[in-house]
Amino acid sequence: MTTPVRIGMIGYGFMGRAHTNGYKRCPDFFPELEHQPVLKAACARSKDKIQAFADQWGYESIETDWRNLIARDDIDAVDICVPNNLHKEIAIAAAEAGKMILCEKPLAMSAEDGEEMCQVIEKTGVQNTVWYNYRRVPAVTLAKEIIESGALGRIFHYRANFLQDWTISEELPQGGEALWRLDADAAGSGVTGDLLAHCIDTAIWLNGTVADVTAMTETFIKERVHQATGEKTKVTIDDACSFLCHFSNGSLGLFESTRYARGHKALYTFEINGSEMSLRWDLHDLHRLEVFDHKDEGALRGWKSVHVTDHSGVHPYMDKWWVPGLQVGYEHSFVHHVADFMKSLDEKTPCAPTFRDALETQKVCDAVLASAKDHTWHKV
Ligand code: SOE
Fold first, then answer.
1. CATH number among 3.40.50.1100, 1.10.760.10, 3.30.70.2860, 3.30.360.10, domain 135-351+358-379
2. pTM for the structure as a whole
3. Which atom of ligand 1 is nearest to the CA of 259?
4. SUPFAM superfamilies attached here (predicted)?
């Protein structure tokens, strides 16, 4: 007998689809879990659009006001898939109504807002998680297991990039339904909250907390037409952001993100260098973990590329899929997150990253943006 977790999805964009695919695949590929998602209702202001989304993806019903969705007795968990400026109000209302919450990243517009959200969530005790999905790419989870085993020795360096090129055109407007990521009022920040937040979440998970940062940002295109008014308006998001940091474990960090790296569509890479071993991962080759082990000796010492598709249990999540040697993709990170959320309900444990975990990333983002403004080092 399974226990249904009735999902109320708010939003229907790219992330709404990615999460919904996760809910749909979970019962088929993780049938052993007692809790399983049920697509109960989808919500957005446009009735036609949300009805079309619900029909296509299999939600039983629709709502056009998130307050009505949260008030429903037949909703157990609310999935917040709307622009960042709406996360706080919805999350707090959902928690106060006793709903579990799965919130899209970044957690909030600022660490101050995030702290407020955490306090309500923790007071109400509702189960919660934030969709930093890359933790659940099997090769990244494997990196975490190897680092936790101590095999890397003393860690010296962590570096990460998230590179895109989709905003290079000056003709691209800002704001509105599709381009809210370019509007600071809706997104809070540019690449820092959208892209670097992923790199920071993974980095904290793999290498511990960040102590201080020094950063630079640039807004290459200063004005864009705003979709709401049709007027040219100042662009206040960061188009590119790079920062240096010290981790609390004494290692040094180097991070870069931009939407102006011509040719790169979504290149997320990280590398970690320890005294005994280095690991490297690349989203465009996401099923591989590159490993250099200093213990290897002789002529064949070198970087090896591990195809993370073993089914014996040594490669996280992989025994759930197909047969050994056949790899998985981007969408599976969301399926794994849903499965881990359901498992956390079975086992009555938190599902990382929780709001509190995601707040740590938010604090680094805030420190990065503050440092870029005043050109000094900022403690996190
Ligand atoms: C932006 O283009 C974006 O879709 C981010 O919003 C996602 O979080 C990232 O995973 C891919 O890029």
1. 3.30.360.10
2. 0.97
3. 2
4. Glyceraldehyde-3-phosphate dehydrogenase-like, C-terminal domain (SSF55347), NAD(P)-binding Rossmann-fold domains (SSF51735)
